[in-house]
Write a structure and sequence with these properties.
27 helices; about 700 residues; seven-stranded parallel β-sheet; globular; single chain; alpha/beta
């Protein structure tokens, strides 16, 4: 029960969602919008009927309030907990630090008490006081790769962490500013597998992770992330508190985040680290067998090229099998948990955790090749970063080809689910993402809702028939057709494999010059972003920032503060930039953001769909491009006063058969293929921008 409930609360009828939404909007100083009201009412209907809901809500809709108000009302009325899952730390912090505190105060009077909320993350995100007090059990993994300076830096960071441990009340890593490296943090944190458990841990009563979980079980709203939602679905033991309603914000990232959480890696260094953890706990012959297996794996991986594996090479299959069997022997020698002192119990738990991970990954790798290619559950590949700026030895990876089955069985079958984002209706339809989520491709026809529907349908025998869902696009309060232009450079040659051509660079220069800077350049590769930045620094008088010159947050802040500045970069900028106002009036996309042909997961998914008679390109590559393109184009309009041009310099958007699908996924800007029209609009905006006295500058 989230909070103590008075007798009055048990008997009083709570106000309706529409009334509560009006109170909430007034309290936060906002303006009620039609799309926000429609979304809130749709969420309330989903809660009443148990039918899943996908809502596309454009920027400026106020979707956070639209789902929080009915969710909180439900939690208070039913004395239960609802879960809100997000993809990014930024939105998590926005909900917990800004939206929920203001909303809780606004709803206190009409609901009869102040709603409560908490944030919950994976155990690795919290300081482990036992590790702090007992000290690191070993040197950092891959310590042989660290030079003396790095080791010294980690030592300084560990000293800071020890000092911080006596000051922090939450142990949450995000509250440590400035932060520390991953190598240092791993020395003072544990995974769920490594944890002794509160009952056995000598400082279990002071455990930050356990406190966060306990707090989560007592509140109305728990804010978490897609990764923890995936872990909760993957494990038999639940991580999140009991709930029957989950809201998934930034749902366009759900599949990628769940895939990442379900991906495993096997490296020779991990095998070596697991062997060290076994230490003197087991006999030397058994641990040496695992060490030798890891060395054999390293030798085999060194001789193999990077890339996806459609068949398991004999030598690699033998090496992985040897690792699997040696890890099993170590697990047998480690035995089950036994009565021993805390130090010995800790060492045994850490060793078992490391060896179990090695064993389970090796089993999964070997089993991945059992079925024919069309029916394999996993894809396997070798990565080799030895020539990058931060070299790592070759490693084996295994990831699920699809996560729809997992989501269908462990999320949708358990809880009423609301999925929302500014980008869900790709090509104007929800069915593309619905298939990836594991929902039936066609939504359930929505009956006329008179507000009285309360009965949830009985489960059907067929899993798909039992999952009913509806889709709703509530639009955006922004007048995209009046305030924005989509310029497609049809006259440019299609992009090739050699990077940016001279014609494309000339086009970028002319557009940036017309805009007077004020440009966000979204590129398909860091190589292209750097070349464009170097070229334009020679040609134009504006400052050109490039991702990698400094931290991304610092670059975005500088870009926002200095209107005539440009910012060029890759993937994280496509979704992570929120710069309203005159600093951003031109978004440039150098080429359609299809996944790389050598992307192991995307290429394997595409091939599996084609093997079953489907269109792998449209289902995988075009969907990926549509999501990113819509997100990238959305960077232009972050407030109702924003105006500008989205320039796509890939002529395939105008000429290819799939171009219509991609264009239908982008906000409805006024379209043109005339470069002069785009340049003239940017010139007028630049002339009007410094005074910003008028917000009605004509774009065309």
């Amino acid at each position: 029960m989230p909070a103590e409930i008075s007798t009055l609360q048990k008997t009083r009828a709570l106000p309706g969602v529409r009334e509560l939404l009006t109170d909430a909007v007034e309290a936060v100083g906002g303006t009620e919008r039609d799309g926000q009201v429609r979304m809130a009412e749709a969420v309330a209907r989903a809660i009443r009927t148990g039918e899943h809901l996908a809502v596309q809500a454009g920027t400026g809709t106020g979707k956070s309030l639209a789902y929080l108000v009915p969710a909180i009302r439900y939690a208070v009325e039913q004395h239960t907990t609802v879960v809100v899952s997000t993809a990014t730390i930024a939105l998590q912090n926005q909900l917990v630090d800004r939206d929920l505190p203001r909303l809780a105060k606004a709803l206190k009077k009409p609901l009869g008490r102040e709603p409560t909320f908490a944030i919950l993350k994976g155990r690795r995100n919290y300081l482990c006081m036992h590790r702090v007090h007992s000290g690191a059990p070993e040197e950092p993994e891959d310590s042989g790769l660290f030079d003396a300076f790095t080791v010294s830096r980690i030592g300084r960071e560990l000293k800071r962490l020890h000092e911080w441990s006596s000051e922090t009340e939450t142990g949450d890593r995000t509250e440590l500013v400035p932060g520390v490296s991953e190598q240092a943090w791993r020395q003072v944190s544990v995974s769920a597998r490594e944890c002794l458990g509160a009952a056995r841990c000598p400082v279990g009563d002071d455990c930050f992770a356990e406190k966060a979980r306990a707090d989560a079980g007592r509140v109305d709203v728990v804010v978490t992330n897609h990764a923890l939602l995936a872990i909760d679905a993957l494990q038999e033991q639940r991580v999140l508190p009991e709930h029957d309603l989950v809201v998934i914000d930034e749902a366009h990232e759900l599949v990628d985040r769940v895939t990442s959480a379900a991906t495993a890696e096997l490296t020779a260094s991990a095998v070596s680290a697991a062997t060290r953890r076994c230490g003197r706990i087991i006999d030397a012959d058994t641990s040496d067998r695992l060490l030798e297996a890891g060395e054999g794996l390293a030798l085999v991986l060194d001789d193999l090229p990077a890339g996806r594996l459609d068949t398991l090479p004999q030598a690699l299959g033998g090496a992985v099998t040897v690792v699997r069997d040696a890890a099993h022997a170590c697990l047998t020698a480690l035995g089950s948990e036994r009565k021993e002192d805390v130090e010995e119990a800790t060492a045994r738990k850490l060793a078992r955790s490391a060896v179990e991970e090695i064993h389970d990954t090796a089993v999964r790798l070997v089993d991945a090749f059992d079925a024919d290619q069309a029916n394999r559950p996993d894809v396997v590949w070798i990565s080799n970063d030895t020539y990058s700026s931060s070299p790592r030895p070759p490693s084996l990876h295994v990831a699920p080809l699809a996560v729809g089955g997992l989501l269908r069985e462990r999320v949708f079958a358990r809880s009423t689910t609301v999925l929302t984002s500014a980008t869900l209706a790709l090509g104007g339809r929800f069915d593309t993402l619905a298939r990836q989520w594991g929902l039936p491709p066609e939504p359930t026809p929505v009956p006329v809702d008179d507000g009285t529907a309360t009965d949830k349908p009985a489960p059907a025998d067929d899993a798909d028939d039992g999952l009913r869902w509806s889709g709703l696009d509530v639009g955006s309060p922004f007048d995209y057709g009046r305030n924005g232009i989509l310029y497609v450079a049809k006259h440019l040659p299609p992009p090739g494999r050699d990077g940016l051509g001279d014609a494309t660079l000339d086009e970028i220069a002319s557009l940036v010059e017309a805009a007077g800077g004020r440009t966000l350049g979204l590129f398909s590769s860091m190589r292209a972003a750097k070349r464009a930045a170097e070229e334009l620094r020679e040609r134009l008088p504006y400052e050109i920032l490039c991702q990698g010159d400094d931290s991304t947050s610092t670059l975005v802040a500088q870009f926002a503060e200095e209107p005539r500045t440009c910012l060029f970069g890759t993937l994280s900028l496509w979704q992570g930039v929120d710069v309203p106002g005159p600093s951003l009036q031109l978004v440039i996309v150098d080429r359609l953001p299809f996944p790389r042909p050598d992307d192991p997961v995307a290429s394997a998914r595409q091939r599996a769909i084609e093997a079953k008679g489907g269109n792998g390109f449209l289902t995988v590559a075009a969907t990926h491009a549509a999501l990113l393109l819509a997100q990238g184009a959305g960077r232009l309009h972050r407030s109702s006063n924003d105006r500008g041009v989205v320039a796509v310099l890939d002529s395939r958007l105008a000429t290819a058969r799939y171009g219509g699908f991609l264009r239908a996924s982008i906000p409805p800007f006024w379209p043109t293929q005339d470069p002069a029209v785009a340049r003239d609009a940017l010139t007028r905006l630049d002339a009007a921008a410094p005074g910003r006295s008028s917000t009605s500058t004509a774009l065309r």
